[in-house]
Every structure is written in structure tokens, then in C-alpha cells.
Known about the structure:
Elements: H1 2-11, H2 14-26, H3 38-50, H4 54-66, H5 71-85, H6 88-100, H7 109-121, H8 125-134, H9 142-154, H10 158-170, H11 174-186, H12 190-202, H13 210-222, H14 226-348, H15 355-382
Helix pairs in contact: 1-2, 2-3, 3-4, 4-5, 5-6, 6-7, 7-8, 8-9, 9-10, 10-11, 11-12, 12-13, 13-14
Amino acid sequence: xxxxxxxxxxxxxxxxxxxxxxxxxxxxxxxxxxxxxxxxxxxxxxxxxxxxxxxxxxxxxxxxxxxxxxxxxxxxxxxxxxxxxxxxxxxxxxxxxxxxxxxxxxxxxxxxxxxxxxxxxxxxxxxxxxxxxxxxxxxxxxxxxxxxxxxxxxxxxxxxxxxxxxxxxxxxxxxxxxxxxxxxxxxxxxxxxxxxxxxxxxxxxxxxxxxxxxxxxxxxxxxxxxxxxxxxxxxxxxxxxxxxxxxxxxxxxxxxxxxxxxxxxxxxxxxxxxxxxxxxxxxxxxxxxxxxxxxxxxxxxxxxxxxxxxxxxxxxxxxxxxxxxxxxxxxxxxxxxxxxxxxxxxxxxxxxxxxxxxxxxxxxxxxxxxxxxxxxxxxxxxxxxxxx
Length: 388
């Protein structure tokens, strides 16, 4: 500071005076701490401005505008810096003043655009941005507007990038809109950050990212954006509800899985029990079949032996019967022989009538005599007799 003072005071060095004005306007941190002193700054700026230093004229105009609200003096100084020194900042400031009507004659859009265009051609990003926005109005050229907004965006103007995102959105280019919003948000542009948050929240032009959207809304809320603060509260409330519902669903899923696991376990146990029962039944069935086969085999052996024995018995019975028949035949033959012998004997001598035969003859004769007697009696009764 001492060197700058010496140069400014002893040698009338305009740049040194300008630098001293900037130091006292903005202040310096430790170790070379300098407290802000607007009056001191204005003194040094006036010295440099008196020497036609356009930067000092511009800074002095800003101090008059912001600190003292002296628009007339500010406009005069801006014109000096713009017309005499071709200062882009002063041109931009004049463009703003004509746009807002802070000049003689009120609002003058044409002169505002003229000063914006002059400053934009000198590389002033803010002027290029304002010119791009102004040209989108009535009577403007959207093509030229896009050109100046692109120019301002390349110069790093977050406001231009934000406006380009709106242009892309109006053209239904959601992805392009998000691209510009991300660039603007990186520079700390709060409206761009807010719009990017909602793009992520709704998955428009980018992947849905609720957590990322919440972080961006938090940045806007911390910067004092009340709408972002309100949206953030609503989002957090919704997230709490979603988490609660998710936890409930997870618990329900776990419960169902446990029930399903229990059911599977029960089913598995039942299936194992059925398999065991089937194996036991199969084992029993096989054992029974084995025993049946053994019994059948045993019965076959016994049957063969019994059949052989029965056959032998039948043969013995048949033989015995044949012998008996032979014996009977012999007895019958003997009996017939005895009968024949008797017949032969009867034929050889006369037979006497038996007592029974004599008695029958006698009875027949007595009966005949009785019959004759009765007939005789009958004849006598009738009057005649017939000798027979």
C-alpha cells in the first residue's frame, strides 16, 4: 500500500490510484489487513477517473449506484467509461440502466440491446446473456438469441446456461436441458440447481435419483430458497413414508418367507415321512413277497411229496380194490356154482309137494264145493235145479 501511495501521490500514477481504490473498496485480509473504506476508495477512484482511467470511472459509477443510489452520476461515469474507454463493464451497466428505465426518457430497449451487444462483442458474458434473453422477446431473433446465449455459456455464464436449459426444455430436449442445468448448477446457480433437482426427482432427461434430488434441494434451501426448503420438507416426509412402507413390505416379505420356509420345511418333513412310509411299506411288501415265495416253494416241495404219496396211495387203493373185486368175483362164482349144483340135484329126483301147497289145494277145493252148494240153494229157491 505504501508503494502504491507513493506512486500515486508522487508520480500521479493513475493505475496505482485505481488499485488503491479497489483495495479500500474491497478490503484486504490478514496479514496485510485493510479495512473497507468506501470514502477512501472513492477518493482514489476520483483521482484515477479524473485522468480518464475507464476502470476507475466504472468502479466509481458502481459505488454511486450501489451505495448512494445516485443514478445520474453513475450514468455519467458509465458513459465516460463506455464512450471514452470502451469499457465492457460500463457498457453492460448502461444496458441494464436503459432496460430498467434508470436513464433519461425511461425504458429504452433498443439502446439497452445496443449497449449489451457492444459489451458482448468485447467478451462480457453477462451482456451476452442479457442480450440473448432480450432477443427472445417480441421482435427479437431466436437464432441470434441462441447464438449469444451459447457465447455467454462458453464464457462461463451460469445464467446463460440456465436460459439455454429453458430453451432446450421448450424444444422438448429434456436431456439437453439437463446438460445445461448441470453446468449451471456446478457454478452455484440456484434456479438451475432447483430445476436440476426436480429433473432428477422425476427422472426427466436423466436417471431418477431421489437422493441426489434431495441433496440439490438442500443446497438451494441453504442458499435461502424458500420454495426449495418447502419441497425438501415434502420430499423428506415422502421419503419417511416410503421408508416406512418399504420396511413394512420387507417385514411382510420376511414373514412370508419365514412362513414359506416353515411350509417348505413341513412339506419336506411330510415328504420324508411319506418316503419313509413308502420304503417301510415296500420293505414289508418285499418281506411278505419273500415269505410267500418261500411258502410257495415250500408248498411246492410239500405238494410234490404229498402228490407222490397220494399217487402211491391211489395205486395201493386201486390194487386193494382190484384184489377185493377179485375176491368178490370168486365168492360170486362159488355162489353161482353152488346154485347150479342145487339145480342139478333138483333135476335128478322128483319133488314132493310141500305142506303149504297141499293146504292151498285143499282150500281151493273147499271153496269150490261151497260155491256149488250156494248155487244149488239158489236154484231151489227159484224152483229148479240144474245138475252140473
